[in-house]
Amino acid sequence: MSVQSAAADVDVDLRQLFASLARNWLRILVVALVITGLAFALTWLATPHYRAETRLLIETRESVYTRPDGTNDNDKPILDEEGVTSQVEVISSTDILKQVAQKLNLSRLAEFDETADMPVLSRLLVIAGLKSDPNEIPPEERVLTKMREKLNVYRVEKSRVIVIEFSSENPRLAAEIPNAIADAYISVQGNANIESNSAATDWLAPEIADLSKRVKDAEAKVASYRAQSDLLMGGNNSVLATQQLSELSSELSRVRASRASAEATADSVRRALQNGGSLDAVPEVLSSELIQRLRERQVELKTNIADLSTSLLDNHPRIRALKSQLADLDRQIRNEAEKIMKGLMTQAQTAQARENQLVADVNTLKAASARAGDQQVELDALQREATAQRQLLESYLTRYREASSRKDSNYLPVDARVFSRAVAPSEPYFPKILPITGAAFVGSLLVMAIVSLLQELFSGRAMRPAAGARFERIEQVAMPVAREPSNCEPADIEDVEDRAAEAQAEPEAAAAAQATAPATGEDVEPARPTLGEVEIDRAVEKLITSAAARAIFVSPEGDEAAASAVLVAREVSDAGLRVLLLDLTASGAASRPMLDSGLFPGITNLLASEAQFSDVIHPDLYSDCHVIPVGTADPVRAMRAADRLPIIMQSLTTAYDLVVVECGPADAQGISRLVSEDTEVFLSLLEPDDEVAQAAVELIESGYPDLTLVTPVGHETPGTPVPGRRSAA
Question: Where is the composition biased (Low complexity) (predicted)?
Answer without folding.
Answer: 502-520
